Amino acid sequence: MTKEKNMKSEAKKNQEQLNTEETQEQTQQQAQEQQGEETVAREKTEEKKQEEEEQQEQEEAEAQQEEKEEEKKKEKSDKEKLAELQDKYLRLTAEYDNYRKRTLKEKMELTKSAGEDILKGLLPIMDDFERALQSIDDAGDNQAVKDGIYLIYNKFKDFLKQQGLQEIEAQDKDFDTDKHEAVSKVPAQNEDMKGKVVDVVQKGYYLNDKVLRYAKVVVGE
Q1: What distance in Å separates the CA atoms of residue 188 and residue 174, rounded to the nearest whole number?
Q2: Helix (H, G, I), strand (E, B), or coil: what is residue 217?
Q3: Angle (nearest 5°) at CA 10 between 9 and 14
Q4: Contact 125, 160 (CB under 8 A)
């Protein structure tokens, strides 16, 4: 009886020991599983953190790239503005130089032609002088009068010449519309006189190489 009781007690102990070992194994397994889950969670957290850091680094790199591009655009814009200002400066300089040259030329032309109206008004007097000289040549012998008028005429002619007045050559010259004004046409005496001035009705004059009055002429045809 005692032996049987001991056997049951031994069996109970063994069972309790097995249960204890099983419980310990389960506890250990649960601890390992929990540790594994914690490890996985920690790894996921670290991976997420790493991803966030990589994303942040990428965003910072993109921001820096955009900033560099903006700086390049700004630098290009500044260069374009500088080039535009330089172009405007060169244009203004050229325009001012052209204006200065044009003004100088106008002043020179104005100086040359300052007395144009006065001299033009004196031309009819010159014509009258020449007609008077023709009449004197046809008159009687009055040499003193002739000499006096010729003296006045020559002085007057010299004065006009000093002012830049010069007679346009026309007699027997080729007809030129830039210098001559045809008032009539007549048959030419010979072939050589065709298209040439056969008579000068009214003399023409230059003023400093500019036609002041066209010569009125008769042209042979």
Answers
A1: 13
A2: strand
A3: 115
A4: no
One-letter identity of residue 36: G
Q: How far apart are CA 60 and CA 96, in angstroms?
A: 53
Domain boundaries, the chain: 62-112, 113-220
Q: What is the DSSP letter of 198?
A: E
pLDDT score at 7: 64
The first and second tokens of residue 141, run together, are: 């012998």
Q: What is the mean pLDDT of the chain?
A: 79
| Amino acid identity for residue 167 in this structure | E
Residues 200 and 93: their CA atoms lie apart, in Å, by: 51
From 11-15, 56-60, 201-205, the region with the lowest mean pLDDT: 11-15
Sequence-distant (≥ 6) Cβ neighbours of residue 2 within 8 angstroms: none
The pTM for the full model equals 0.43
Taking residue 218's Cβ as centre, other Cβ atoms within 10 Å add up to 16
As a whole number of angstroms, the distance between CA 64 and CA 73 comes to: 14
What DSSP element (H or E) covers 125? helix 116-138
Give residue-wise pLDDT tens across range 152-170. Answer: 788 888 888 887 888 999 9
| % of the chain beyond a pLDDT of 90 | 12
**Fold type of domain 113-220:** Nucleotide Exchange Factor Grpe; Chain A, domain 2 (2.30.22)
Residues 32-85: tens digit of each pLDDT: 777 767 777 777 788 788 888 888 888 888 888 888 877 777 766 777 888 888
Cβ–Cβ < 8 Å for 115, 209: no
